[in-house]
Write a structure and sequence with these properties.
It contains nine helices and three strands; from the N terminus they run αααββαααααβα. It is mostly helical. Strand 1 and strand 2 form a beta hairpin. Helix 1 crosses helix 2, helix 1 crosses helix 3 and helix 5 packs antiparallel against helix 9.
Length: 227
């Protein structure tokens, strides 16, 4: 078995944020392979995160973010202790999510927050569009058989819900374009060891509801973030 040195434990701790004893155990379990030990800790943490989901979280932060004086976001994120709420990892997460909301304009935290009236209205709009399709100039109209319309619309509804729900959106700062805000949250829970919930948010845009030029805030915020 490979010798587990203090330097290896320190390296793994800096990579994962896990405790010293957990890092040592992981290294022993993985034969001193730091990469495998990191993956081992991550899997263990993700499993533990699922168990923490039902725990009460009443501490946390209310954070505000304003982008160039034109888009404002206020968000409440809860955790279990004020100790975690004061931590750099938790604060960084809250700030990142606030910036994401400014860029991506989600309407709800999760699918569970979408009211039935909104779902019914969106389904009605999509049903009407499916029955009376319109094509772009130069393209042929794609007629959907009546029997297929409900199935097609349900697929569109599933896609729409992912687009408007914060936890299902792809994080704007993820270079690979794969990690969702929900996955980012789960990773933080696994690392910190407390239940963390995005409780609510509001987003304002200058001149909202008035006729004006639309800007690509996602691109603008990403550019500001150096991506």
């Amino acid at each position: 078995m490979a010798e587990i040195t203090t330097g290896m434990i320190k390296d793994l701790r800096e990579r994962t944020g896990a405790g010293m004893s957990d890092c040592k155990k992981a290294l022993v379990e993985c034969g001193g392979d730091v990469e495998k030990a990191g993956e081992f800790l991550r899997k263990k943490g993700l499993a533990a995160a699922a168990k923490k989901a039902g725990r009460v979280a009443t501490e946390g932060l209310v954070h505000s973010y304003i982008h160039n004086g034109r888009v404002g976001v206020m968000i409440e994120v809860n955790c279990e202790t004020d100790f975690v709420a004061r931590g750099d990892d938790f604060k960084a997460f809250v700030k990142d999510v606030a910036m994401h909301i400014a860029a991506s304009n989600p309407l709800f935290v999760s699918e569970a927050d979408i009211d039935e009236q909104t779902v019914a209205k969106e389904r009605e709009i999509k049903m009407e569009a499916a029955r009376n399709p319109k094509a772009a100039p130069g393209e042929k109209v794609r007629v959907i058989p009546e029997a297929m319309i409900p199935k097609v619309v349900e697929g569109q509804m599933a896609k729409w819900k992912k687009e408007v729900c914060l936890l299902d959106q792809i994080w704007v700062r993820d270079e690979e374009g794969k990690k969702t805000i929900g996955a980012l949250l789960t990773d933080l829970v696994a690392k910190i060891g407390e239940n963390i919930k995005i409780r609510r948010f509001v987003r304002w845009e200058l001149g909202e509801g008035l006729e004006k030029k639309k800007d690509d805030f996602a691109a603008e915020v990403a550019k500001q973030a150096g991506l």
